[in-house]
Design goal:
heterodimer; A: about 350 residues; about 0% strand; disordered N terminus; B: about 325 residues; 11 helices; flat
């Protein structure tokens, strides 16, 4: 479907000054990207017409260190990375950081922030700050879990579809179209209401409808990479298909997938929060930023008790913002044609 | 041209079929059968069995599927488990408000994002560019329900400028001005997300076109910068934007669900939430199916519109 191809090219182009022609098929798009990826892999940047060309051939830094240095140039992305690392640490060490047990009920309920409870207590009397800290665990687990699952699945589908082509490709792409037609939140809500909301279900369902974009990306990359000479050489040498796919094609196809996965983590966190907010996600008494915001639906809470809903909302905002910054930085770092 | 359209339509048919299949599978995820929901524990098992037979629940699954498709083609989406109204009727009366909300938000989002994105690209790395890009990031990062709540808090409760929910005021006249007042907050929140997404794509697309050689040729021919930008650059840059806009439609549905709940807007999003609360599966299934079909249609239209705008795509 041309729509998705163009979307993907636009995706890779967004945020950078260069990018491939947004109007052409993904094949050419990923092709040029992969071609120069191969060049950069050899440590050669720029074109032969560029006076720096020869100089860089001599320097030949490793691909990885080039990516890292390009990433580090984006201050916002680095800030996002620091925030995310701190968040993950906070999630892991929650029991040691949180001042109280998030499930413990204290005598003072709906209390405003005080020395004892830095962010006050909720309607039942649980400490808001502790719940905030523990809720980070939910977001991290859902975000990373869902994305891990759907990246693996989507990559497999896309790789097989792109490599074998023919009717396998047709079938897989139609299936992808089918899944892509369902608007995420609606269908996730429906399924979660059918199966009952809990952490595992949410993670699985989130993954179930997000793999389509990864599949398309990988398929596009594989389609173009497979035309490259080094792949033909591998085939001529008699390497078996799985080896060619996993050792030679996929590593070069991964860059846009990594970027997509990063944005996917942010999206997963927002969707989980939305589900919990609607009551269809993580259920009380387990704490999730989304279900903490649920309380704000009553007008009294909204006006009189801002400590109940502003902190979780801000946490979601900051976390998603940080991850989006990282994604943007990664996209610029991994795009081999970033202008200096 | 017709060739392309026909090809697209033909591809869409198996996808449509697949959508119904997937929907049907999802229905059967529900624990127990639809009959179990009306269970009165005092009913003897034989009566239950009879009821199941009556409803055709013991037929082989492919027969159930065919019967279901038959009903759908006749426009019958089932009956709501809670109030026994026809699901088709329910969706029919709710879809208007949702489309109003979605349409307004989309329009507003485009009207904000296009100029911002274009100017950002033309004046790259200027202060305006940073503000626009920063705003775009915020727009896509902030959870819509949080923004909605904050908007209600600020505009409704503190400043008392705009109503906090519903589509018209109680006892109000329901006239245009009243409806507009109610539309502003939810549409703005939704538009913020849309605009956030679009600004980045517009900017990237324009930036990319600006580097093209044919613009250099145009300048070399002596055309003014204004004509070069307006007539040549933008016209080409905006073509992929059509696709991106089309792809916002599924996001709009999702946003509609959340915001209709926050603002008590009587659309299909709220219908979905209510159905979930009451476990009204027939309605949920109907909603699911309709949304998927709408998204499919939207993608189809986008593809066709794109092929009108960019002739290269017709010959793939």
């Amino acid at each position: 479907m041309p729509t998705a191809d163009i979307m993907r090219s636009a995706e890779t182009a967004a945020g950078t000054a260069t990018g491939t022609a947004a109007g052409t098929a993904a094949g050419t798009a990923a092709g040029t990207a992969a071609g120069t990826a191969a060049d950069t892999a050899a440590g050669i940047g720029g074109t032969p017409a560029d006076p720096e060309y020869g100089r860089e051939m001599e320097e030949e830094r490793s691909y990885l260190s080039q990516i890292v240095r390009r990433f580090l140039r984006h201050r916002l992305a680095v800030a996002g990375l620091i925030y995310t690392v701190l968040l993950i640490l906070m999630a892991i060490f929650a029991p040691w950081i949180a001042p109280h047990d998030p499930y413990a009920i204290h005598p003072a309920f709906e209390a405003p922030p005080s020395g004892e409870h830095w962010l006050g207590t909720d309607q039942i009397g649980r400490d808001v700050l502790s719940r905030l800290i523990y809720a980070a665990r939910v977001s991290v687990i859902v975000g990373l879990g869902a994305v891990a699952i759907y990246v693996v699945f989507g990559t497999l589908v896309g790789a097989i579809s792109g490599y074998y082509g023919g009717w396998v490709d047709m079938v897989f792409m139609r299936i992808t179209d089918i899944f892509m037609s369902f608007p995420h939140i609606m269908v996730i809500l429906v399924i979660v209401s059918l199966l009952g909301p809990n952490l595992l279900t949410i993670t699985m369902v989130l993954a179930m409808f997000a793999w389509t974009s990864v599949a398309r990306i990988v398929r596009g990359s594989v389609l173009s990479i497979k035309q490259m000479d080094y792949i033909r050489a591998a085939t001529a040498l008699g390497f078996r298909t799985p080896r060619i796919l996993f050792l030679h094609i996929l590593p070069n196809a991964l860059a846009p997938v990594i970027v997509n996965a990063t944005f996917g983590i942010a999206a997963a966190i927002i969707i989980e929060a939305a589900l919990s907010f609607l009551g269809m996600g993580v259920q009380s008494p387990m704490a999730s930023w989304g279900n903490m915001l649920n309380a704000a639906q009553s007008l009294t809470t909204l006006t009189d008790q801002p400590w109940l809903w502003v902190p979780p909302g801000l946490m979601i905002l900051l976390t998603v913002l940080a991850i989006n910054f990282i994604g943007d930085g990664l996209r610029d770092a991994l795009d081999p044609k970033t202008l200096k | 041209m017709m060739n392309y359209i026909i090809r697209r339509l033909l591809i869409a048919i198996p996808v449509l079929f697949g959508i119904t299949l997937l929907n049907f599978t999802i229905i059967h995820l529900a624990p127990g059968s639809p009959v179990d929901m009306y269970l009165d524990p005092n009913i003897p098992p034989e009566a239950l069995e009879e009821r199941r037979e009556q409803l055709g629940l013991n037929d082989p699954i492919w027969q159930q599927y065919l019967k279901w498709i038959g009903q759908i083609l006749q426009g019958n989406l089932g009956y709501s488990a809670t109030n026994f109204e026809s699901v088709t009727a329910l969706i029919g009366e709710r879809i208007g408000p949702t489309l109003t909300l979605m349409g307004t938000a989309l329009l507003a989002g485009i009207l904000i994002a296009l100029p911002l994105g274009i100017i950002s690209a033309l004046r790259q790395n200027s202060v305006l560019d940073y503000i626009a890009t920063g705003g775009a990031f915020l727009g896509i990062s902030v959870p819509q329900f949080f923004l909605g709540l904050a908007a209600i808090y600020i505009f409704s409760l503190e400043l008392n400028l705009l109503p906090s929910g519903g589509m018209k005021s109680l006892g109000g006249d329901g006239g245009l001005a009243d409806r507009l007042k109610h539309l502003i907050l939810p549409a703005s929140v939704l538009a913020a997300s849309i605009a956030g997404q679009l600004v980045r794509y517009v900017r990237a697309s324009v930036l990319e076109i600006l580097g093209q050689d044919y613009l250099r040729t145009a300048r070399a021919k002596g055309l003014s910068e204004w004509i070069v930008t307006m007539k040549h650059a933008l016209r080409n840059a905006l073509i992929p934007i059509i696709t991106v806009i089309g792809l916002q439609i599924p996001i709009l549905f999702g946003g509609a669900v959340i915001l209709e709940e926050v603002f008590q807007w009587p659309g299909i999003g709220q219908l979905a939430i209510d159905s979930i609360m009451t476990r009204d599966y027939p309605t949920l299934m109907g909603l699911n199916l309709i949304s998927a079909i709408v998204v499919l249609m939207a993608n189809l239209l986008t593809d066709i519109a794109y092929s009108f705008a960019d002739p290269r795509i017709r010959f793939k």
